[in-house]
Amino acid sequence: MVIFAIETSCDETSVAIYKNRKILANVISSQINEHTKCGGVVPELASRLHLKNFPYVLLEALQTAKIKITDLQYIAYTEKPGLIGALHIGKIIAETLASYLAIPILPLNHLYGHIYASAIDNNFLFPLLAVLVSGGHTQLILMKKNLDFEILGLTLDDAVGECYDKVARMLELGYPGGPIIDKIAGTGTPTAYHLPLPLNDQSYNFSFSGLKSAAANLIAKEHGKENLNLPNFCATFQKTCVDIIMRKTKLAIKNFQPKMVTLVGGVSANSALRTAILDLATSNLKVIIPKLEYCTDNAAMIARLAAQELMENRIKGD
Ligand code: KG4
Ligand code: ZN
After folding, report:
1. Max CA distance (Å), the chain
2. pLDDT, tens digit, 9 for 90 and up, residues 41-71
3. Tens digit of pLDDT for each residue in 126-137?
4. Where, in this chain's numbering, is substrate bound (predicted)?
């Protein structure tokens, strides 16, 4: 089974080639430099750049995988969720290629792709709890078997990655803010300031907008940007985000007794969150996190999800 996958849901133009249970190529062309000039992702620019970048990532993937375009047997692409124009470009490219090569096409869910990024180098154990943390989503998902996704809880407002990005913007640190705050946090003291733990209840839902407002107040009113100790602030903010996610994750583990936990989505690249999730491992609970290149948006995860859909015979391919 040779699968060509396309991911264009946000600001990464990515394609991957999967053959015989292996990712042979995963090419990611990041648009970050272009969007940084505007302080965040500009949807229309993202669409245009996907179209411009696609021929280059396609050629690079074919060369890396040593595969001819006519060897491709399936085209998979991210159907949703994401920026509507950016997704549309992926769909048009996928349909054009599938029609040219006369092969089947698989429209797939980006969030489930993030979860299956974990299956690239690991075998899933069920029940599996997926902690999905990205720029657009924050969810706890329980899987009792392959391709069976039960959303236990989700954010009621901002996603955790969005909160990182917005706080970084307030501090004029650059885009995307998550990795920048993560790096600075490593040099600070997490108890130096106080930030609230919103929605600290018995549900599996999250809330980050209150934290964002509290961070804004702390930055603007209480200290003023010049007086703020940046490493201490970043360390406090990071610890608060990790605490919010870990409290609900531990609650779900207690109540659903999964055999495996996985941390996925762009924020799974966060150093403190990775450490906290890995610390959950016991003899009865295995913890897995995808390799860093499979954490933020990439097409390898879409290819792996496509392979699972085909293995489970959910898509007949005709
Ligand atoms: O999954 P992803 O690449 O795109 C979406 O589907 O949203 O996630 C991007 C998000 C951004 O908000 C970015 O700031 C965040 O992941 N991120 C991080 C780190 N690396 C990426 N957040 C915290 N710490 C990091 N090291
Ligand atoms: Zn994503």
Report:
1. 63
2. 899 999 999 999 999 999 999 999 999 999 9
3. 999 999 999 999
4. 132-136, 165, 178, 182, 270
C-beta separation of 74 from 104 below 8 A: yes
CATH 3.30.420.40 domain span(s) along the chain: 2-116+295-316, 123-289
Query: Is 176's C-beta closer than 6 angstroms to any atom of ligand 1?
Result: yes
| Residue 259 CB contacts under 8 Å (≥ 6 apart), including other chains | 125, 126, 127, 128, 284, 285, 286
Is this prediction's pTM over 0.85?
A: yes
Pairing relationship of beta strands 2-7 and 12-19 according to DSSP bridges: antiparallel
Ligand 1 and 82: CB distance under 6 A: no
| 142 DSSP β-pair partners | 129, 150
3-state secondary structure of 117: helix
For residues 143 and 126, the answer to whether their CB atoms sit within 8 Å is yes
Domain 2-116+295-316 fold is Nucleotidyltransferase; domain 5 (3.30.420)
By the 8 A CB rule, do 58 and 66 touch? no
Three-state secondary-structure class, residue 18: strand
The amino acid at 259: K
Ligand 1 geometric centre to CA of 306 (Å)? 23
Ligand 1 proximity of 288 Cβ (cutoff 6 Å): no
Q: How far is CA 248 from CA 221, 289, 305, in A?
A: 30, 18, 26
Q: How far apart are CA 289 and CA 267, in angstroms?
A: 11
Q: Which ligand 1 atom minimizes the distance to the CA of 12? A: 3
Q: Where are the beta strands (DSSP E) in 12-92?
A: 12-19, 22-30, 74-80
Contact predicate 82/110, CB 8 Å: yes
CATH fourth-level superfamily of 123-289: ATPase, nucleotide binding domain (3.30.420.40)
